[in-house]
Amino acid sequence: MCKKKIAVIGVGNILMGDEGVGVEVVRRLERLKYLGEVELIDAGTAFLDVVTGLRSFEKVIIIDAVHGGEAAGTVYRFKLDDVEGDKPAVSLHDFGVIESIRLERLIAELPKEIVFYGVEPQIIKLAMQLSPTVEGKVDYVVQKIIDELIASGVQVQR
């Protein structure tokens, strides 16, 4: 299997309002071209199904809705070490992204660099669109991911 350099993974449920922000960010990133090894993955609500594939990447960037206690629309950037140990996981999923990665690390070596971008949701209810507050942050998060990719040596073309 060819080792890919960077995975960008959008996580979330597009049927639950702001819970789908990670998926929307990846959809917008799919409109761009990349000169470098980048794989964009829409994991939806099935992150547990893709976690084993993380082994083939050098760096992973994950985007999800995150409860961090700040105002709706707040954008967070953190690494796995920032939520390790006894600190609670911040994902909105029943079995979250953090827990999935922790379990996978018990049996396999994962990339040393795993970066999370989270957006504080405003509305988590049956709705097929993001709230205006979170929608207003999507392009900002897309740009932060682009900046992250460029800092990792990837050329991004609009």
Secondary-structure blueprint of this entry?
Blueprint: E1 4-11, H1 21-29, E2 33-35, E3 38-44, H2 47-50, E4 57-65, E5 75-79, H3 97-107, E6 113-119, H4 132-151, E7 155-157
Parallel strand pairs: 1-3, 1-4, 4-6
Antiparallel strand pairs: 2-7, 5-6
Count of alpha and pi helical runs: 4
* Level-2 CATH architecture: 3-Layer(aba) Sandwich
User: Major sheet, described briefly?
Assistant: 5 strands, mixed
Strand order of the main beta sheet, please? 3-1-4-6-5
Q: Which of globular, elongated, flat, extended, rod-shaped describes the shape?
A: globular
Q: What structural class should be given to the helix and strand makeup?
A: alpha/beta
Share of residues in helices: 25-40%
Overall CATH class = Alpha Beta
Rounded to the nearest angstrom, the radius of gyration is: 15 Å
In total, the number of domains comes to 1
Mean of residue pLDDT values? 90
Your description of this structure?
This protein has 158 residues and is an alpha/beta fold. It has a single domain, classed as Rossmann fold (3-Layer(aba) Sandwich), CATH 3.40.50. The chain has four helices and seven strands. It has a five-stranded mixed beta sheet. Strands 2-7 form a two-stranded antiparallel sheet. The protein is globular, with a radius of gyration of 15 Å. It starts with a strand and ends with a strand.
What key attributes describe this structure?
globular, 158 residues, alpha/beta, 28% helix, Rossmann fold, two-stranded antiparallel ribbon
Question: What can be said about this structure in brief?
Answer:
The protein is of the alpha/beta class and 158 residues long. The chain has 4 helices and 7 strands, in the order βαββαββαβαβ.
